[in-house]
Amino acid sequence: MQILQQLINGLSLGSIYALLALGYTMVYGIIKLINFAHGDVYMLGAFWGYYMINTFHVGFWTALILSMIFCAIIGVIVEFLAYRPLRDSPRIVVLITAIGVSFLLENGMSYLFSSSPRDFPQAMVMHRYHLGSLSISNVQVLILVTSIVLMILLQLIIKRTRMGKAMRAVSVDPEAAQLIGINVDHTISFTFALGSALAGAAGVMIGLYYNSIDPLMGMTPGIKAFVAAVLGGIGLIPGAALGGFVIGLVETAVQAMGFSAFRDAAVYGILIVILIIRPAGILGKTTREKV
Amino acid sequence: MLLQVEDLFVNYGVIQAVKGVSFNVNEGEIVSLIGANGAGKSTILHTISGIMRPKSGRILYNGKEIQKEKSQKIVSGGISQVPEGRHIFAGLSVLENLQMGAFLRKDKSQLKKDYDNVFERFPVLQERKNQDAATLSGGEQQMLAMGRALMAAPKLLLLDEPSMGLAPIFINEIFDIIESIKKQGTTVLLIEQNAAKALSIADRGYVLSVGKIVLSGTGQELLNNAEVKKAYLGG
């Protein structure tokens, strides 16, 4: 029973990491950038949800969708202002810019809205269901189910739609994509919009789950989601989902064994091990350069 | 004249790759640009397609300047390119590759006919339409790259080294296909190192050497030209 309980806790936490990791991996796939500001987009999503619920008294689902839209727009703007001008610059320049954007968002939000945590409105009453010694909350179920639905939707967009196929085409060969008339800039914007929308959803759900948000809330989950993306195989969409769930489960397991203090260390430990044993990630293939 | 290139200069990094090239392509022709590796052939095609910018000079398509246009505008205007080395989209199915070729198409009614056309011309693509494009052989990938470019419904098709790296049996097939594309009314600008083949199907040709055009004439004239024979046709 204890194991089952931790499994449920781990999966719902893991689905949040998975949503975030998808954004990292999609952006990496298309412009080979680790977007370190991604965790902060998640934070902005949580704040937007907070204001929508508190000020406009919208319901939880409306807040979730509005946050997704808001974050999609933020993602597109960040790409347009910060990364697009550096399209032809060395990758390290863009990477440092991403760290700069992250600091800007974190400190900008701290300055504007104070850095102290605030209570996320309980837009949905938390129920706990007891099955024997098993205790599951409706919010946990909601997080897990919503995340899975979003991941399925994402998969459909990428596999079936014109823009989704264009995303894959640009990821494998931007020049060839351009030669057949795909607008690479639009496709990149679209990728940022998708990834950021998922982060927005994750932000609102975590707000509801932990009941507390603050401007720095994106740092640690952001880095863990990045670890998840690398663990699954960066650039691979199924890898990001898998990595997210694995990280969530590991973290919960470590905590359940009484090593709460080592929770984060365990996650980073996994990163180190993966980089040594399987640098391309669980699902990644070691790529051979074709000549 | 469908395409007119006037006094084109293009730099590739710090290298002057194209130094004052002028040539033209008439509607319904196959025009071949031949020349050794590094003569600037690919640079010219990339500049026409709008993914490289000229330092100076003009490119006129149907009488309109296009050297500053974005690549998607050029494709939707009717110029598509089969890039050197094929560059098919690995991980996408054969059909999805073709769909990407039709990315900018708005004329849905004609689209179905064009898929049928491509499948008729390249039956192997129909057989493998749900297969990952990366699993195709080199020759099949070349056909896919051509099919993909044709799905853009081009008036002018740019072909960059279509025979490169292919088995001889495929090379003949590819050149037959190029001729049949012309017969169906698409104008072709062909770049090739295989000069003998390229000139034999060309209405006209130009010989490019270190960024400049050194000779021009009909395909037959160039085939019989002593200099061309010596430099590009192996004596």
Automatic annotation (TrEMBL), chain A:
Transmembrane segments: 7-31, 51-80, 92-114, 134-158, 188-210, 225-253, 265-284
GO cellular component terms, semicolon-separated: plasma membrane
Domain of life: Bacteria
InterPro entries: ABC_BtuC-like, ABC_transp_permease, BCAA_transport_permease
This protein's record includes keyword Zinc-finger: no
GO biological process: D-alanine transmembrane transport; L-alanine transport; L-isoleucine import across plasma membrane
UniProt topology in membrane: Multi-pass membrane protein
Keywords, in A-Z order: Amino-acid transport, Cell inner membrane, Cell membrane, Membrane, Transmembrane, Transmembrane helix, Transport
Subcellular location: Cell membrane
Molecular function GO labels: L-isoleucine transmembrane transporter activity; L-leucine transmembrane transporter activity; L-phenylalanine transmembrane transporter activity; L-valine transmembrane transporter activity
Family per similarity comment: Belongs to the binding-protein-dependent transport system permease family. LivHM subfamily.
Identification of the protein by name: Branched-chain amino acid ABC transporter permease
TrEMBL record, chain B:
Residues annotated as transmembrane: none
GO molecular function, one term: ATP hydrolysis activity
InterPro entries attached to this UniProt entry: AAA+_ATPase (IPR003593), ABC_branched_ATPase_LivF/BraG (IPR030660), ABC_transporter-like_ATP-bd (IPR003439), ABC_transporter-like_CS (IPR017871), BCAA_Transport_ATP-bd_LivF (IPR052156), P-loop_NTPase (IPR027417)
Domain of life assignment: Bacteria
GO biological process, one term: L-amino acid transport
Pfam families from the UniProt entry: ABC_tran
Domain ABC transporter as annotated: residue spans: 3-235
PROSITE patterns named in the record: ABC_TRANSPORTER_1, ABC_TRANSPORTER_2
Keywords: Amino-acid transport, ATP-binding, Nucleotide-binding, Transport
Similarity comment text for this entry: Belongs to the ABC transporter superfamily.
Name of the protein this chain belongs to: Leucine isoleucine valine transporter ATP-binding subunit
